[in-house]
């Protein structure tokens, strides 16, 4: 069967990573979480002490960005790929609030995007990948054979995020999370470098009122529509 590139973009907390991971497992493709790559660079900067409040020592990062090694390796105990930074498993650390608070500053830098986009293009060169992010169908793989844009209403995404946080033991109010979702949407879609934008040829999935099973069936159908020809 022919191998393709599947680009999945969309809003934060839209469930796109879950969808991308499930799809990759189902069809035997490699899943690449590009958000994890921006998070890994952010973690590196935090460890180096390059942040002072919201100000980053950009020149220090610029000098090393091409030498940072970010890779993914399968973890048999979770059944998923973990993110590695210079050979160290950082999967847990990149998901902390400390990283989440700073990552959008790092993701807005043109030289960071340029370096990570080049790595992502190299990872997808042989095809057979499901890549999720914000600019995959527009910048990283504008020729991807299948492009999906996943979204849900801000209220639905805020509720999902609130439930996730509460399950982890973080008490948050719905209003607080909704405000954060709105803020992230705004930052993601208004930055000048690689903003979140729907590719003209992307298929849009609004999963506000869909179950996970319905979503899974829909995405598999789109995949087969492209490869079974
Ligand atoms: O999907 P996520 O929450 O792990 O993404 C982390 C951050 O990285 C978020 O601020 C959006 C940004 N990002 C990006 O700018 N481009 C991508 N391709 C993926 C993520």
Automatic annotation (TrEMBL):
SUPFAM superfamilies: P-loop containing nucleoside triphosphate hydrolases. ATP binds at residues 10-18. GO terms for biological process: nucleobase-containing small molecule interconversion; pyrimidine nucleotide metabolic process. The keyword Transferase applies. It is found in: Cytoplasm. GO terms for molecular function: ATP binding; dCMP kinase activity. Residues 6-224 form the Cytidylate kinase domain. GO terms for cellular component: cytosol. Its EC number is 2.7.4.25. It catalyses: dCMP + ATP = dCDP + ADP; CMP + ATP = CDP + ADP. Gene3D superfamilies: P-loop containing nucleotide triphosphate hydrolases (3.40.50.300). Keywords: ATP-binding, Cytoplasm, Kinase, Nucleotide-binding, Transferase. Its main location: cytoplasm. HAMAP family: Cytidyl_kinase_type1 (MF_00238). Belongs to the cytidylate kinase family. Type 1 subfamily. This is Cytidylate kinase.
């Amino acid at each position: 069967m022919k191998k393709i590139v599947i680009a999945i973009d969309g809003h934060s907390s839209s469930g796109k990573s879950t969808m991308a991971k499930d799809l990759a497992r189902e069809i035997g493709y490699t899943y690449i979480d590009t958000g994890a790559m921006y998070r890994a660079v952010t973690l590196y900067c935090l460890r180096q002490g390059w942040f002072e409040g919201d100000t980053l020592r950009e020149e220090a990062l610029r000098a090393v960005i091409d030498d940072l090694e970010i890779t993914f390796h399968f973890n048999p105990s979770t059944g998923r790929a973990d993110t590695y930074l210079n050979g160290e498993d950082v999967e847990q650390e990149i998901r902390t609030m400390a990283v989440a608070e700073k990552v959008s500053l790092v993701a807005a830098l043109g030289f960071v995007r340029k370096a990570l986009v080049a790595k992502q293009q190299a990872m997808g060169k042989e095809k057979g990948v499901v890549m999720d992010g914000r600019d995959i169908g527009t910048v990283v793989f504008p020729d991807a054979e299948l492009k999906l844009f996943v979204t849900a209403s801000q209220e639905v995404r805020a509720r999902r995020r609130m439930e996730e946080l509460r399950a982890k033991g973080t008490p948050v109010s719905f209003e607080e999370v909704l405000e954060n979702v709105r803020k992230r949407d705004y930052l993601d879609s208004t930055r000048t470098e690689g903003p979140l934008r729907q590719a003209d040829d992307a298929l849009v999935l609004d999963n506000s009122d869909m179950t996970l099973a319905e979503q899974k069936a829909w995405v598999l159908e789109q995949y087969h529509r492209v490869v079974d020809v």
